[in-house]
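User: Hi! I have a protein structure encoded as tokens and I'd like to know what sequence might fold into it. I'm fairly new to this, so please keep things simple.
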């Protein structure tokens, strides 16, 4: 007969009681030791007691400082660039390869041309970046009064990138880029314009009107990752009292001091609307201009401009090249997907034509091994992956096993195609076999292409897994496409006969 267990509540109570007793004993022992030490120190002469007390105090202070360093929250590390460093020569090579593949590269070439133009001009470009309604356009008007950009308290009025010439207090000129605000509903295109211009600039002023959100924090760290000067400006600081402003700046410095060149509080001015009560009880809407206070920002910009645009050019060029390289890689992936789809369609048709030549139902890829080998090799070439003959043979053998295990399912699915295309049933069983072979080659091609694109290697296990999934549940679009190919090939064969 099993022994009854003690209730869990009783066990927990006993454990808590034991822990409390141990803690109490530790406290009593510590206090006793402190009292004994105090008595012994009191008996010592002053010339010996004072140095010992000083040494003990120093040791306690050092221990406390060490514990504080270990326990304090870690600072956020500086962000890293979103793309690895790339040289101009590497970017040029990528663009040449894209041209060879008939990919439109005009946008990339225009970006490089603008990079060269700004370098040759020697002008210092500063982008004003931030969410909508943080006061970017008001700041442009304050830094470059002659520009007079449109100001609207509704926010989101900047829909394109505008450049204005500004002048610092010491007379040095700079080009201000007023970019669309981020965080606007349905503003993805304008946000991309803002990010592109921020990468083209020598320095970035990030404007915030309050504490940063998670999205703004990520945006700021992304900008800092390119290594160019970054200024964080708390705009509309005149709307906060001294304590609120100090608290906000304190939080900014705690989080962003490692990545921002300077953190300042400013007021760009701009329009302010409010209602006021009149003596007769009526209320009226009033719009007034707030005074600008930009001295801290002028000082920070002056410190950056003192080095000249040439000193800031390497970081700016690295940011632009990284973005051009990233877009070039996207275009290359898109081109590879397009070319891979054409290759799959080509070899699927060849497999269908071969199947119509009285290939036995349910046979695997060994019969059309040459086609399978050619398909895998062409897809590897498209994705720039080197493959060995042994790897291709191993892959086709494993896929052949997959086809044998699912051949009945493949033929059943092919039979369903005859329901969608009644005309297939009048062309004989060879069409059914052709659809089966077409599905095999279509599945193999897409599995190999996806594996090469994602893993940059011919992972046999991954390809086999993908082929199984594609054969088990072929999408109706794939099934109809292969059926159309089989129908067209069968009709061509009958016409030739």
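Assistant: Happy to help. Inverse folding works backwards from shape to sequence: for each of the 497 positions I chose a residue that suits the local structure. Here it is:
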């Amino acid at each position: 007969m099993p022994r009854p267990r003690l209730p869990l509540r009783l066990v927990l109570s006993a454990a808590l009681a034991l822990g409390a007793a141990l803690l109490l004993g530790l406290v009593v022992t510590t206090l006793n030791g402190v009292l004994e030490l105090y008595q012994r120190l009191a008996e010592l002469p002053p010339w010996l007691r004072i140095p010992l007390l000083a040494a003990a105090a120093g040791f306690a202070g050092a221990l406390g400082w060490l514990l504080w360093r270990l326990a304090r929250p870690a600072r956020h590390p500086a962000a890293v660039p979103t793309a690895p460093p790339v040289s101009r020569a590497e970017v040029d090579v990528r663009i040449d390869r894209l041209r060879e593949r008939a990919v439109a590269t005009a946008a990339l070439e225009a970006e490089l041309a603008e990079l060269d133009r700004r370098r040759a001009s020697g002008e210092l470009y500063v982008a004003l970046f931030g969410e909508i309604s943080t006061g970017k356009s008001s700041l442009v008007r304050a830094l470059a009064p002659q520009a007079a950009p449109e100001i609207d308290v509704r926010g989101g009025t900047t829909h394109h990138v505008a450049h204005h010439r500004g002048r610092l207090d010491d007379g040095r000129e700079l080009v201000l880029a007023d970019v669309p605000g981020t965080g606007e509903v349905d503003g993805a295109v304008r946000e991309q314009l803002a990010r592109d211009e921020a990468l083209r600039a020598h320095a970035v002023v990030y404007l915030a009107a309050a504490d940063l959100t998670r999205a703004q924090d990520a945006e700021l760290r992304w900008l800092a990752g390119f290594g160019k000067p970054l200024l964080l400006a708390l705009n509309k600081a005149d709307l906060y009292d001294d304590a609120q402003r100090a608290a906000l700046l304190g939080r900014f410095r705690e989080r962003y001091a490692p990545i921002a060149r300077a953190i300042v509080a400013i007021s760009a001015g701009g329009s302010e609307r409010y209602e006021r009560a009149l003596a007769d009880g009526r209320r009226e809407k009033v719009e007034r201009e707030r005074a600008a206070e930009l001295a801290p920002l002028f000082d920070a910009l002056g410190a950056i401009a003192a080095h000249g645009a040439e000193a800031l050019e390497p970081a700016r060029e690295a940011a632009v090249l990284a973005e051009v390289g990233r877009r070039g890689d996207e275009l290359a992936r898109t081109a590879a997907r397009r070319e891979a789809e054409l290759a799959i369609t080509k070899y699927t048709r060849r497999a269908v034509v071969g199947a119509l030549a009285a290939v036995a139902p349910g046979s695997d890829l060994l019969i059309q091994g040459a086609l399978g080998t050619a398909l895998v090799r062409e897809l590897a070439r498209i994705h720039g992956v080197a493959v060995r003959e042994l790897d291709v043979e191993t892959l086709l053998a494993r896929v052949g096993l997959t086809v044998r295990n699912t051949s009945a399912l493949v033929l059943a699915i092919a039979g369903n195609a005859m329901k969608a295309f009644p005309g297939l049933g009048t062309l004989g069983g060879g069409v059914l076999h052709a659809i089966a072979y077409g599905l095999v080659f279509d599945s193999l091609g897409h599995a190999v292409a996806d594996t090469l694109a994602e893993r940059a290697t011919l992972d046999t296990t991954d390809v086999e897994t993908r082929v199984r999934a594609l054969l088990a549940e072929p999408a109706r679009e794939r099934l109809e496409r292969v059926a159309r190919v089989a129908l067209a090939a069968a009709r061509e064969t009958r016409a030739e006969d």
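A useful reference point when you look it over: Strands lie at 125-130, 162-167, 173-178, 203-208, 230-234, 262-265, 270-277, 283-290. Feel free to ask if any position seems puzzling.
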